[in-house]
Write a structure and sequence with these properties.
The chain is α/β, with parallel strands linked by helices. It folds into two domains: 163 residues, D-Maltodextrin-Binding Protein, domain 2 (3-Layer(aba) Sandwich), CATH 3.40.190.150; 120 residues, Periplasmic binding protein-like II (D-Maltodextrin-Binding Protein, domain 2, 3-Layer(aba) Sandwich), CATH 3.40.190. It has twelve helices and eleven strands.
């Protein structure tokens, strides 16, 4: 009798199929991970908020062994960060380069016309949002924002008060112009390469005030060298060390609020498997006690975000900066 549909299968075929199944399972489990040191680009100077966060991430990575390869931090601050952005833009498809961004991600191309846009990069994650504070030197007589602004108005002619900030036509100058327009006064704006340098110059009395991020002046504040007068946010900072600083609405009646991106991007066309690894890696960093303490100590808003939600947020932030720069006369003509 004939048996239909039954055929003898050679043992070698069975072994081959099993090998493929087992091998496939191994390949699926062997997800991508770095095979050489990771270049972490900072498009700003040393000592500022971006530099501090990048160095902290590198340190946490080493301490907790979160990456099989080390993170090498590199500052490329030239051209208000254009040097760093163009460097990463030129590394198409590179899985071993990432960049930390601040608002110069938007302001630098809008102001200078440099051939770069955030869409040239690969969004990975938002790590936090950073606030801004109006600071003066602690040796000055100004105890409140009203007292300082009154002095600024008196000197809005030729001998103007100097406002220090990071870069030209970046977030610090945008906030300064908003204050000028709202209160009808004028500062002489003095740009520096990074927030750390800005605060050092405030301590040294080379400028009269700054609108630094909290973390950039925190150590000098605790040392009694600088004084915070108001925070540019709708609510007071909830962290214990900062909660007594009034909002700019409370201090001056101004509805000026501004939060800055602390985000991570990769080069154009970064492989998806690499993006997935960095997202998981950065979430591990974000969840460490050290990073949580850093956010609290530096008065940063916890704001981890990835994927389509991150892209949507960045799109909205780009439009916001364009609107603010149009109003401030900072767009490239």
């Amino acid at each position: 009798m004939k048996r239909h549909g039954l055929h003898r299968v050679h043992p070698w075929v069975v072994l081959l199929v099993l090998a493929l199944v087992w091998g496939g399972g191994s390949l699926a489990q062997a997800a991508w991970e770095p095979t050489k040191p990771i270049e972490f680009v900072i498009p700003a100077g040393t000592g500022g908020g971006a530099d501090q966060m990048a160095c902290l991430i590198a340190g946490i990575t080493e301490k907790h062994k979160l990456s099989p390869r080390p993170i090498i931090v590199v500052n490329k601050a030239g051209g208000a960060g254009a040097e760093g952005f163009l460097h990463v833009k030129g590394k198409k498809g590179d899985a071993h380069t990432i960049i930390i961004t601040l608002s110069n991600l938007f302001t630098t191309p809008l102001h200078t016309g440099v051939p770069f846009n955030w869409k040239d990069l690969t969004p990975i994650s938002r790590m936090a949002l950073d606030r801004f504070i109006l600071w003066v030197n602690a040796e000055t007589p100004y105890k409140t924002a009203k007292e300082y602004i009154a002095a600024v108005k008196e000197r809005s002619g030729g001998d103007r008060m100097k406002m220090g900030g990071t870069g030209s036509a970046q977030e610090d100058q945008i906030i300064t112009i908003q204050v000028e327009q709202a209160l009808g006064l004028k500062f002489t704006y003095v740009p520096f390469k990074g927030g750390g340098e800005v605060c050092v110059n405030l301590v040294g009395k080379h400028v009269d005030s700054t609108v630094n991020n909290p973390i950039e002046c925190a150590s000098n504040w605790k040392a009694g060298r600088v004084r915070p007068l108001a925070v540019f946010d709708p609510e007071r900072i909830p962290d214990p060390d900062w909660k007594d600083i009034p909002t700019v609405k409370e201090a001056l009646g101004l509805d000026i609020q501004y939060n800055m991106l602390r985000g991570i991007f990769g080069p154009p066309e970064m492989p998806k498997e690499a993006v997935d690894w960095y997202v998981a890696f950065l979430k591990k960093v974000y969840d460490t006690p050290e990073f949580k303490k850093y956010l609290s100590d530096g008065a940063l808003k916890p704001a981890f975000l990835t994927g389509a939600d991150y892209v949507k947020w960045v799109e909205g932030a780009e439009q916001l900066h364009k609107d603010l720069m149009v109003k401030g006369g900072l767009l490239k003509k």
